[in-house]
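retry 2 of 3: previous attempt timed out while embedding S-adenosylmethionine. Reduced batch size to 1 and resubmitted. Inputs unchanged:
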Amino acid sequence: MACGHGRVTRELARRGAHVLGVDISPALLANAKAAEVRSPLGITYRWADVTSPRCLARETFEIIVCNFGLSDIDDLPRALATVARVLNPNGLFVFSILHPCFPGSGDDAPSSWPPDKGYFHQGWWLARNPGFRGKIGSNFRMLSTYLNALTGHGLQIDEAAEPRPPAGNASDHLGAQVPWYLVLRTRKVGAGPGMDAALPTGMATEKQREAARRNIKKAQAAAKEKRTMADLPRSTRTALGKQGAKVARQKRSS
Ligand SMILES: C[S@@+](CC[C@H](N)C(=O)[O-])C[C@H]1O[C@@H](n2cnc3c(N)ncnc32)[C@H](O)[C@@H]1O
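retry 2 succeeded.
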């Protein structure tokens, strides 16, 4: 997703993946396609605006990878809606971004946020450096914005990484002490917080999650009829645990 000239698509294909690369920039896609012609790896490239509800309407994927693309995409919720729509259940969404808390290092590596406005000022901005972010700008979002948007689209964090900056990258003391990048592997666990925020933890398989969703629906239906948890079959009560009971209580009181 947002594959640009295809450096990550090529690496994934070299590692054995069957890859489709999508991007909104015809110029970058032309570079990617030219590389595929020069050294074929079986990669398909396609123009797409990943924020469009029509994007990839007929396909589903096991894994979506987005390397330094999210801050270039203006509408994060709509991009994540596409991810959630086209990922298979339990599928992975893996992405890297400039760490939202990166405070900057020297003149060439500006902070994630506009320095004159501060961390809490979200939105598009143009850095004052000669590099990439000084030319095309980027969308700054707080860390919590990313985390809440992921959860809101049923994407649960599997693993997070904050790699150490390569030695020599930082041009000052602070820059050498903080992570520059944030990498998250997330898993599609459901349709969104409406249902999946209530799932008991420790459910490893989609089959277990599906069973838990069915049980939560039963609890919600029972709550609608003003029945109590005690009226539910023992198996449903056990599967629901505390989380399901909470849903039932909330529904009853609303
Ligand atoms: C910093 S580049 C990263 C490219 C590539 N992933 C890489 O690692 O080299 C960000 C990319 O996001 C793409 N992009 C921005 N908005 C997009 C959108 N709405 N849909 C698809 N691609 C988008 C840009 O065209 C650009 O190729």
